[in-house]
Every structure is written in C-alpha cells, then in structure tokens.
Amino acid sequence: xxxxxxxxxxxxxxxxxxxxxxxxxxxxxxxxxxxxxxxxxxxxxxxxxxxxxxxxxxxxxxxxxxxxxxxxxxxxxxxxxxxxxxxxxxxxxxxxxxxxxxxxxxxxxxxxxxxxxxxxxxxxxxxxxxxxxxxxxxxx
Amino acid sequence: xxxxxxxxxxxxxxxxxxxxxxxxxxxxxxxxxxxxxxxxxxxxxxxxxxxxxxxxxxxxxxxxxxxxxxxxxxxxxxxxxxxxxxxxxxxxxxxxxxxxxxxxxxxxxxxxxxxxxxxxxxxxxxxxxxxxxxxxxx
Lengths: 140, 138
Hints:
Distance between the termini of chain A: 56 Å
Largest sheet of chain B: none
Shape of chain B: globular
Helix content of chain A: over 70%
Number of strands of chain A: 0
Number of domains of chain B: 1
Order of helices and strands of chain A: HHHHHHH
Strand content of chain A: under 5%
Mean pLDDT of chain B: 87
Radius of gyration of chain A: 18 Å
Strand content of chain B: under 5%
Shape of chain A: elongated
Number of strands of chain B: 0
Number of helices of chain B: 7
Oligomer: heterodimer
Structural class of chain A: mainly alpha
Number of domains of chain A: 1
Number of helices of chain A: 7
Largest interface: A-B, 54 and 54 residues
Low-confidence stretches of chain B: none
C-alpha cells in the first residue's frame, strides 16, 4: 500500500515537473523585466482607475509582498483604498506561472473563465470598497 | 544579457528549492485523497451540493495554509472524483486571497486590520459568486 502510494506520488510529480519548472522560469523572466518598481510607477500614473489598477495587478509577477511597500507609499500619498484593493486582488488572483499549471490541469476554458472572473472579483471588490471609503476610515 | 540570465537562473533555482518540495507533498496529499476518500463522498459534498460547497471551498481555500501552486494537484484530484468546477474555482481563488501569514501580517502592517478583514470578506463573497457562475457554465 505505502509502496503503491509512493510510486503514484513520484509518477504524478514527475509528470507535472516539466510544466512546473517552466512556469517558475517564465515567472522569474517576467519578474526581471517587469519589476515592482516599474509596476508601481504605472500604478501611480493610472491612480484613478479601478480597471487599470486591476489589470496592472494581474500583469504584475512575483509575490505580492514585494509590491506592498510601493503600494503603501502610493496610498499614503493619496491613492484610494479601492485602488489598493483592485491592485492587490488582481495581483493575487492571476499570475504568469499559473497559466501553465492551470491549463495543464484544467484546460484553456477554465483558465480563460477564471481570468475573466478574476477581473470581475477584483473590480467588484474595489467598487464595494469605493462605497465603504465614504463611511469607514482606513489607515494611512 | 549574461547578467540578466544569471540573475534569472539564480532566482529560478531559489524558487524551485522552495516550491518543488511543497508541490511533492501536495501531490502526495492528492494521492492519499484518491486512495482513501470515496468518489461518492466527494460527489455528495462537493458535486451535487455546490450551492453550499462553493462558499465553503472559498473559505477553506482562504484559511487553510496551502502554499502557492500546491492547490492544483489536490484540486485536480477532487475534480476527477466528482467535485464541481465551481468548487475548484472557489478553492483556487480562496487559496490566493490569503496566500501566506507573512504576506497577511505585512498587509495589516501597511493598511490596517479594517482594510485586511474588509478585503477578505468582500473577496470571499465575490469568489463565491464567481464559483456559482463557473458551476453553471462549465
């Protein structure tokens, strides 16, 4: 039983390993050329627009933690919490590496639908935040 | 060119060192789910009852400490055993909304508790709506 489980695990892991390694490398390439500083600058230039903040978030590679200081500085300088939500949610929901893994596991249809719905989720959440901003004071 | 190649290679190897072992454990968990949890249980709780299962999957995805990308093998096994696509969608999206404790602590530090909890709650609501849409379409 244990032997069978181990064989299935190793086989399953080796089957997906090429896609995973490829996804990690692509993610690092995108990260290198679209650094969080460049994305932060784009975010600043499009600061009033929830949809653009969402798309910028989705196009931003790498861990969100790298963007938080930049986004926080923009927030302190006046960027609305709703735009922060749009960017963070967009960035978290979609990323370059996920394309390959999701298409490999679930197919193009699922991935395209998830990206479209991710836009809906990020824009929706940011829109609700835009209403909340009028009634709740968020930390600056 | 050489500098960029070197930096990308080093960062890729660093990422792989972290992600590959976690992914292996995730594949092991998916094999254990496949071996020990009957299809009928998955179909009952995550297939037919997707109206309840989708929000539960969104919340579970958010609160379980599943590392990045590690959801996919588990989600795929659940899907093969009969879970609805809406549940899979909610699980994957829930996992990314709260990715790691370190990131969450940083978010609270920069933006405050109100921001973090509001974003979490509102995101789960919208992920649930998205899950229902996926369940109907796919």
